[in-house]
Amino acid sequence: MADGFAEYVGQRHERLCRTAYLLTRDWATAEDLVQTALVKAWAVWRRIEADPDRYVYRILVNTHASWWRRRWRNEVPTDVLPEGPIEPDFETSVAERSALWVAVGDLPPRQRAALVLRYFDDLTPQQVADALGCSVGSVKKQLSRALARLRVDPALHDLKMEALQ
Amino acid sequence: MTRYTEDDLRVAFTEHSARDHGRAPLVSEIRRRGARTRLRRRVTAGAALAGATAVVVTLTGATAAVGTLAGRVVPWLGDPTAGSTSHVLTAPGLPRTVTSPQGPLSLLVGQTYQAVGERVRVTFRPTSVYTGFAIKCADPKVWLLVRDARATWSNFGRCGVRGSGLDLQHNETSVTPDWLRTPQTLEIWVFPADTPITGSPSCTLADRREGRCDRPWDREAVPKMPERLAAELGPQQGSTWTVGIYDKAGS
């Protein structure tokens, strides 16, 4: 059991830390968050070793949510999004992505978690739903709202591909 | 106004989460904490552990030495239990017996304190491996730390409102090898409800060596070094709390 666990930690630790960082925006907190999730995973390893990611992602998100609730006064969500150029620009610049990064930080934690799991960890909507402990429909709603607030248009992906061809 | 694509989102996530090297995973530390988590789950056996802990310990045939360094001890209440040679004492709010998967456990010692911000040690000689304990606080918001004197385990959190049963009970797998051979000591610390302890196990500007988390105390650091917090707060006459020690009589 222990060897399988050590192997899992060795393979997944950095990736989990990156996911946790995207949730917390602080590397020290992210590492603590992953450590806490792995402690909980170790305690039930025999039960989850066939598919540990499913459990670990869920613990990661839930633990972060509970920490965030306790510290909610430290974060002030805002409806104001940074403005970019008036005309659409399909050549993605570093500056634009920085603005996008700032905007993601202003999202409610649950929407941010849905985005990170879907677009960074490439989980399916069903897997995101498992991690968030909600229905697939609820995940789609969270993603849709988050993308709308960020002004991310899924349709633009196809347009960009066409423009490049 | 800029409109982004899903690819922009992926790139932003990838770029901002990149780093040269991070802290290596401490697998041994994870295992050690995981083992403690397992132990807690096993010994609680259905008791709610949402925050703090309560413990009961049983003493039969032997006199429990209950001591506090400086806190005021409220007089013992109760009377001896039939069939036992031990000095059986009860305290307000503690039942004489509690049910457990191993059958009824008898209250052998109950003590009420007003000791806040200081260590209270309860030494007892277990008579079975099913020793349990329970703690009740007049103010459910006080912070409660319970740990064994060897610091092999601890539970820390708000005292909360507890039921009439055990908060924690040992079994064959959770006790130390010398459990029945030597006296055991439980350490209990109660800190005021308004103690500046963070809700998060992590915080910025933390100095783990000093147990500090910027200004508030790190919740994870307190169980490891309650002496430092106690030294800062000093002993106080706070609200009362009661510890009860239970065990399987005649084992």
Low-confidence stretches of chain B: 45-90, 200-206
Radius of gyration of chain A: 17 Å
Most residues in contact, chain pair and counts: A-B, 60 and 42 residues
| CATH architecture descriptor name of the largest domain in chain A | Orthogonal Bundle
Keywords, please?
heterodimer, A: 165 residues, mainly alpha, Arc Repressor Mutant, subunit A, 2 domains, 9 helices, 0% strand, B: 251 residues, alpha+beta, 6-stranded antiparallel beta sheet, 5-stranded antiparallel beta sheet, 13 strands, 15% helix
Annotate the secondary structure layout.
The complex is a heterodimer of chains A (165) and B (251).
Chain A: H1 2-24, H2 27-43, H3 45-48, H4 52-70, H5 94-105, H6 109-120, H7 125-132, H8 136-150, H9 154-164
Chain B: H1 6-16, H2 27-44, E1 65-68, E2 73-74, E3 97-98, E4 105-116, E5 119-124, E6 132-137, E7 143-148, E8 154-158, E9 168-169, E10 184-191, E11 206-207, E12 212-213, H3 226-233, E13 236-247
Antiparallel strand pairs in B: 1-5, 2-4, 3-4, 4-13, 5-10, 6-9, 6-13, 7-8, 7-10, 11-12
Explain how this protein is built.
The complex is a heterodimer of chains A (165) and B (251). Chain A is mostly helical and 165 residues long. Chain A has two domains: 1-49 and 60-74, no CATH class; 92-165, Winged helix-like DNA-binding domain superfamily/Winged helix DNA-binding domain (Arc Repressor Mutant, subunit A, Orthogonal Bundle), CATH 1.10.10.10. In chain A, 73% of the residues lie in helices and 0% in strands. Chain A has nine helices and no strands. The termini of chain A are far apart. Chain B has 251 residues and is α+β, with helices and mostly antiparallel strands. Chain B contains three helices and 13 strands, in the order H-H-E-E-E-E-E-E-E-E-E-E-E-E-H-E. Chain B has helices at residues 6-16, 27-44, 226-233; strands at residues 65-68, 73-74, 97-98, 105-116, 119-124, 132-137, 143-148, 154-158, 168-169, 184-191, 206-207, 212-213, 236-247. In chain B, strands 2, 3, 4, 6, 9 and 13 form a six-stranded antiparallel beta sheet that branches. In chain B, strands 1-5-10-7-8 form a five-stranded antiparallel beta sheet, covered by helices on one side. A two-stranded antiparallel ribbon of chain B has the order 11-12. The longest helix of chain B has 18 residues, at 27-44. At the A-B interface, helix 1, helix 2, helix 5, helix 6 and helix 9 of A face helix 1 and helix 2 of B.
